[in-house]
Amino acid sequence: MRFDVCSNFLSENSLCVFLLHGVVKNSNYHYRNFNRKHILAEEFDFFLETLMKNGTPVSMDNLIEYSNEKMMPENAFAITFDDGFENNLSVAAPILKQYNVPATFYLTTDFVANNTMSWIDRIDWAFEQSVACPLIEISVPWRKIPVKLEAPSSRLSFLNEIRKTVKNDRSINQHKLSSSIQRQLGYQVVYSGTSEIDTKLNWEDVKCLEQCDLFTIGGHTHSHPIMSFLSETELLHEIGYCLSLLKKHAGITTKHFAYPEGMSNCYNQKVIKSLKSFGIKCCPTAEHGVNQISSKSDLFKLKRIFVD
Ligand SMILES: [Zn+2]
């Protein structure tokens, strides 16, 4: 939902949980950030200013209390960030502090430990590098013949096709596909970057966020797989290793987690049971909507509103 109309979702009896990934000072790209995963600092400022005029900020910890009968304020909203981009600390945090708004940051620990890009950011990066090529040709496992792409619009719709297909097909190895596309477009295989939409928080940055009373850190797996696609062993590793690295490198013990991708096919009862076995109490989805909070609320199926 566009940042400037998000406050329309506030209402007396429900809680809006907003989902963001990044806040940046500039965003001048042809293909990268076309879905506005990172919004501009002045847009984020306007978004918080409008929410503060009309609503009451709460933390995800407050939310656990509201599910235990504590009264929730009217027009309540919570701010969450997924993945662990460095701009969360350098650009978003000062604006959150200025408005005194709590936020929860769900971190993918491999992104933090190795400054890794997500598989789709690696593909978007290669498309951006190829912007001046009049024609690009790409083979992907779900198409019988290579796709020929000329116009920017066809490239953007193909990027959407890639996102949609990969998120629904557990047989596709995401990073293998990204490496293949980078090579097909004539580049070396790239796993990390230093632009403001690539750089991730490092462990010092994570500690810095954690030290601020307004902010909470949660897990978002170790390598950002779709959790429902994993075997039991892989699932326990993705959760357990993520939580152990948060503890080891930043001294953080958390009861918060968010599912990578977060759509209805990305989690299930097996995933929820595994999270609970690690002491996780609350795990929002990325399904669109607002939430009624009561003792009957399932804090593992909370809906969020994607801010773009
Ligand atoms: Zn994510």
Concise account of the structure shown:
This protein is an alpha/beta fold and 308 residues long. It folds into two domains: 3-116 and 194-306, Alpha-Beta Barrel (TIM Barrel), CATH 3.20.20.370; 119-184.
Verbal overview:
- With 308 residues, this protein is α/β, with parallel strands linked by helices.
- The chain has two domains: 227 residues, Glycoside hydrolase/deacetylase (TIM Barrel); 66 residues.
- 37% of the residues lie in helices and 14% in strands.
- The protein is built from ten helices and eleven strands.
- The strands form three sheets. Strands 1, 4, 5, 6, 9, 10 and 11 form a seven-stranded mixed sheet that branches. A two-stranded parallel sheet has the order 2-3. It has a two-stranded antiparallel ribbon with strand order 7-8.
- Strand 5, helix 3 and strand 6 form a beta-alpha-beta unit.
- The longest helix is centred in the last third of the chain and has 19 residues.
- The termini are close together.
- The mean pLDDT is 96.
- Bound molecules: zinc ion.
- The site of zinc ion has 5 residues, from strand 5.
- Zinc ion binds next to strand 5.
